[in-house]
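Researcher: Before we compare anything, I want clean individual predictions. No alignment, no superposition, just each chain on its own. First chain goes here; please echo the sequence and then give the structure tokens.
Model: Echoing the first chain and its structure:
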Amino acid sequence: MEKAATVPMRRPPASAKSEQRIRDILRVARQVFSEAGFQAATATGIAQRLGVSEATVFTYFGGKRELCVRVISDWYDEIIAKVEDDLPRVHGTRARLHYLVHAHLRHLLAEGSGLCAFILSEGRARNDDFGEVYATLQRRYTAPLMRILAQGQADGDIRRDMPLRLLRSAVYGPMEHVLWDAILRGARVDVGATADQLVGFLWQALQPPAQDALALAQFRGEVRDALHRLQSSENRDGGTY
């Protein structure tokens, strides 16, 4: 398993009181980022809601971006731990895929569309000092799906004519469209029904082509080649026998 990304803090906790202060700051920051988004949120607003000075926040975190990264990292850690704990008890490629799709939608929408929008947008930041932290979190988060797809290919349940990275995008892409649609329209998502529909669609696309369809395609190709050779022979012989 890939090692968790490390997010530096300005001052590591030295006591139980400091640890509790950090937990409180992160809890409130998560609320504020979810409600206002990264750009509109401020360390001052976080401090005021917590009832402390802005300097107290900056005692533990070097800035708003560092605090944002820690909030996202903690969210990923929570979800990854849950998935890693549950997934071994799910058997079968399709059932495991369904579990991941359902879990992804449910966890991202569990605290409302505000947190979902915050995670989807800020979790893709690449232009600052924390770009590698985000990339590592994404790799850890998608690793269970990659294992399911790889095992599915080995078992013959998943098509082998496409690389895993494209299959991964084929799974996460439709889910992201569903989530952004819910965010932009303010619509409630029936997670269970949506997961069922997505997996039904995805499973058809992920399965290997049917053997009879492959045989038919091969036969058609052979017929085309034979006709092409016959036409070429006729052209060389002037169309006569």
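Researcher: Okay. Second chain, same rules.
Model: Second chain and its structure:
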Amino acid sequence: MRLPALLVEAFAERPCQGNGAAVVRLEEPLGDPELQAVARSLNQSETAFLLRANQQWLLRWFTPTCEVPLCGHATLAALLALGHWGELAAGQQLDLLSRSGPLPVRLDATHPGSGAIELPSSGLQPLDPPQDAQDLLQALLGEAPQAYWTSELGYRVALLSPSAALERLVLPPERLPAPERQGWVLMQALGGEPHPRLMGRPADYQLRFFAPGLGIPEDPVTGSAHALVAPYWQERLGRQQVVGWQCSSRPGGMVCEAASSGMIRLSGTGHLLWDGSLHLPGFGSCPETSGVRAGSSWLALLG
């Protein structure tokens, strides 16, 4: 089996920044063990798999260790891949069907390599900061969180003061408390100058994201995290549109705004790093998923 594949550095305005995501186009459904094996070999924070079925595009995401229900940067990568493969024209919108429901995506008609995706935002739920998380932040940054939340996505979110040295934080994955290992967002307002700039605009806030429980010690730029916290920043700043930055070792960011769908629209750019194909001798239809039959993981995306 030979499959078209590419790697996009998503939410990056220049090469070798942002968050790398592999995108694989399937010609027939593959079983979960095969998808996981490919993602493990490609070894990106996420690999997106696209499958055409019933005139619609189905989308799934796998880290090197597991499937995840939502991934922003790999969705942007999948959108840019469809444009690169000639499956989507500039300015055209479609829905990618995923475990998180239909995700509207659109290629930017005026800026090649750019696009917009819409992700659900489940909202932040206030939580008393767990003592072990407080102790860890106190030890690493010298301060306790100003506010703390959990979410339906499973991520926990800590608000830090603008003076916290978030960019310089070194966080050994093994020190994260168990609940935070499924996704820990550390965020802060940007104070002082200069601010990072994205698509010509200064960033309003920045964050970092750690998820060793998902096989990702640190994710460079995380669309699902920004979609989750953007409503907080919109309300705090009194604006419908805010710019989020991720100050990881591979920095990047996105413009976040409320969409008419009730979801959060994330706009950003991506860089195509490599383009080719995967050679997978011995891979083929899995009896469970052959023909996208009833009860399969793929058919579930069709609703």
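Researcher: What stands out in the second chain?
Model: The radius of gyration is 19 Å. Additionally, Residues 145 and 236 are 17 Å apart (CA to CA).
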